[in-house]
Amino acid sequence: MGQHSLSKSSFLKGIQCDKQLYLYKYHYDWMDKISESQQAIFTRGTNVGTLAQDLFPGGVTATEDPKKSDEAVKRTADLINQGVKVIYEAAFLFDDILVISDIIVKVKDEWFIYEVKSSTSISETYILDTSIQYYVLSNFGLNIKDISIVYINNQYIRNGELDIHSLFNVESVKQLVTGQQDIIKSETGKLKEVLNENAIPLVAIGTQCSTPYTCSFWGYCWKDVPEYSVFNIANLKIDKKFELYNKGYVKLEDVPVDYKLNVNQKMQVECYINNKTVIDKDAVKEFLAEIKYPIFFMDFETFMPAVPMFDNSKPYQQIPFQYSLHYQKDKDSLLEHYEFLADANGDPRIPFITKLLNDTKAKGTILVYNKAFEITRLKEIARDLPEFSGEIEERISQIVDLMIPFQKRYYYMPEMKGSYSIKYVLPALVPGLNYEELEIQEGGSASIAFESLYYETDIFKIEKTRNNLLEYCKMDTLAMVEVLNTLYKKI
Ligand code: SF4
Question: Is 203 in the pocket of ligand 1 (CB under 6 A)?
Answer without folding.
Answer: yes
